[in-house]
Amino acid sequence: MKKKTPDTCKLSAVEEAQATRGNDGQLVSRKAGAIILVASAYVLGGGGMLAWLGFIVLGPRFSFDLGLPAFGSLLVDTLLCLLFFIQHSFMVRRRFRVWLTRTVRSDFHGALYASVSGGCLLLLTLLWQPVGVALWSPPAWIDGTMGIIILAALTVGWWGSRSLGEFDALGVKPALATFGGQQQADKTPFIVRGPYRWVRHPLYLVSLVIIWSGAVFTADRMLHNLLWTLWIVVGATLEEKDLVACFGESYRDYQRAVPMLVPKSIQPLVKDIHRYAKNDS
Question: Which band of pLDDT confidence, cut at 50, 70 and 90, is reported for residue 215?
């Protein structure tokens, strides 16, 4: 098989690897595998996201106290964050996904990714170690305002996900399609609608707003917020390399016109866009 060049679209590379290997030699390739991964995505993936959102809004209400000193607690919290960051970033890389086609059918990658990510989030919320008293506890009116900000951010997040068309947060749609023998669409559209006309990564922006709208800030929560902010910025930057590889000059034009995370205009900066990956024919 011809070796892919570094600027090959990740999705095209995975599809080619799957077509080359076929389904017969893979450990997870049949409907039974789809059932397991879909159920796992709903339980672990969905449960992990809800648990993390509750952790942000309410704090670590259900974590297990390991009885560690402050430094040890902060070290555990840091490792929990790094576990999620490394897993979340590593499993979306092109090389890993191509390698994964050796054992797991590409249609099931999304559900597997959501399951592992959700498991890491559940570990974070259950093993998180609070440290110290609150550095800042806002008055009731500010607390209420932050609640409104979180609801507004969630609304924008819903708008952004709907703008992508059939948004699949848990990656289960390709796996579910195998039950009816359906084939996924060959072409990958580049869509710019809704909040994507103001920033290139509105869902990341929503995550940042929610993270920093927590009502109580302790030393461990400040650590959490700083680490997640750094990871989101770095992750968005790395993700853009894949997007440029997939959509070429179309995405470069989009980068020049629209900021990555911080809006710079009240008015949308571009019109709606619907194009296809440069590697699609």
Answer: low
DSSP string spanning 115-143? HHHHHHHHHHHHH----SS-SB---HHHH
Closest CA to 132 of 58, 200, 216, 10: 216
Task: With CA atoms as reference, report the closest residue to 116 among 141, 134, 92.
Answer: 92
Predicted pLDDT of residue 5: 39
Question: In the numeric block, which tokens belong to residue 87?
Answer: 């897993």
3-state SS class at 23 = coil
The whole-model pTM stands at 0.82
Phi and psi dihedrals of 101, rounded to 5?
-65, -15
| Ranges of each domain in the chain | 10-276
Position with higher pLDDT, 21 vs 169:
169
Taking the C-alpha atoms of residue 83 and residue 116, their distance in angstroms, rounded to an integer, is 11
Q: Which residue blocks in 31-139 are alpha helix, DSSP H?
A: 31-40, 47-58, 70-90, 94-100, 109-127
- Fill in the DSSP letter of residue 28: B
Q: What share of the chain is helix, strand, coil (3-state, %, to 5)?
A: 60, 5, 35
Question: pLDDT band at 6, cuts 50/70/90?
Answer: very low
What's the CA gap between 79 and 97, in Å, rounded? Answer: 24
How does strand 189-192 pair with strand 273-276?
antiparallel
Q: Coil, helix or strand for 145? A: helix
Angle at 49 between CA 48 and CA 55, to 5 degrees: 90
